[in-house]
Amino acid sequence: MRKWLPLVAVCLGSFMLIVDTTVVTVALPEIGTGLHASLSSLQWVMNIYTLVLAALTLSAGSLGDLLGRRRVYLLSLTVFGGASLLCALANSPAMLVAARGVQGIGGAAMFVTSMALLGTTYEGEERGTAMGVWSATIGVAAAVGPIFGGLLTQSMSWRAIFYVNIPISLVTMLLTKICFAADTPQQRPRLDIPGIVTFALASGALTFGLILADDKGWTSNATLGLFALALLGVVLFIVAERRHPNPMLDLSLMRNASFAAIMLSTIAAAWGFSSLVFTSLWLQSVVGLTPIKAGLALLPLAGATFVASTVTGKRLHNVSPRVTITTSLLLIGTGCAINGLLIHGGSSWAAAVPGLLVIGVGVGVGMPATGSAIFASLPPQRAGMGSGAMATFRQFGQALGVAVLGVIFSDVIHDHLVGKVADPQSAEDALTGGRRTTLGVLHDAGAHGLTSVYLATAGLALVAALVTSSFVRKKAPSVPPAAPKEAAEVH
């Protein structure tokens, strides 16, 4: 039993981290009232967390390799718990946004080091089991976040959603100290400062641009300027990594077709998860569920993910990643297609259940398989690099999915309402804002918007499945071994 305590420590931290990405959603009205916050401030309470996660995940993985994963994981828990206390004590919107940004710093380090700790603690069938349970924990956390947030907010206050992180952080830190041996590097680490700065510039600008595109439009000067800055950051990052003796990302990995295909599958799977944002809007604005009930309606996906992750992580650890990852994408695409065909204006929440179950199985099959494939492709001293790359691509996939699918959702709704209501824009705003409506034409428009989102997601998943079946090797992709000197320096 003791051998699974490290898994408990990692899953506790990951559960807390993922819940905090969604738990705030249902508390935003109470936060706005309590802090007299504007709509823009409330949006940044959500967006700053996503922005920091995207900017720092890869860098955090590299720091874990260099400074020791146990040390960085403990530090990330300290930062996350401290930032949660500041969030709970916030007396202004600015203080809350700043504290959420610090939470993102701790969260980025926590997420990638937790993956790396599992990858280096367990091997073979045990690694498959651990990755399966960890993946299932993430899936459940994402689904129950709104329910958890709604219960705490209604029974206590919005501040409770942050206070609860403090005891969880302390328990997780204690378990981490007990379960993991110190892994302080023997050589003095050499940080890739140029890589860290340029990647933060590129990823931060891209994520901010995607956030702004939904508000200002894809062709606005601000959005295009941020995309141009992101492109410049990518160029500078590539130059920095090629020149640095110990780069935080081995660029030769991206020239490996198999590794690149696995990263594409990560983006597609995360994109599929983004469709749940619009499912939640549909459940509340069209079906008329409360936020808590809407969260409960998504539990079939969480349950399917949990079962599939725990079963396949243990049973399929020796199966080729080409098979498992391709199967995962096919299931996600099929589930999205089912919902794209079944849901209509008069549907109840139950219409989404068949597709959600299939999507959940697909996510459950894919997450442990992808994680295991990444760790098998890298030497142990580069586990942080691999987990950082995977987490970064997942974060980008989710941000890109919300941005692009948001455009599809709103445009389809708007086109459906033109000529049928007096003010199409106001009606569209009611649907996309999650406000309940009883007008039949709005129900039809909302259903059309959601089915378009699902069908677009299905198309991407099926294309990604074709790519993975063609390019992912039967065995995990390998990387050239590091030179002896580099290996001694951890990179």
UniProtKB/TrEMBL annotation:
It is a multi-pass membrane protein. It comes from the Bacteria. One of its GO terms (cellular component) is plasma membrane. One of its GO terms (molecular function) is transmembrane transporter activity. It is found in: Cell membrane. Keywords: Antibiotic resistance, Cell membrane, Membrane, Transmembrane, Transmembrane helix, Transport. InterPro entries: EmrB-like, MFS, MFS_dom, MFS_trans_sf. GO terms for biological process: response to antibiotic. Residues 6-476 form the Major facilitator superfamily (MFS) profile domain. The chain crosses the membrane at residues 41-60, 72-91, 97-118, 130-148, 160-181, 193-212, 218-239, 259-282, 294-311, 323-343, 349-375, 396-414, 453-472. Pfam families: MFS_1. Its main location: membrane. This is Lcz38. It comes from Streptomyces sanglieri. The gene is lcz38.
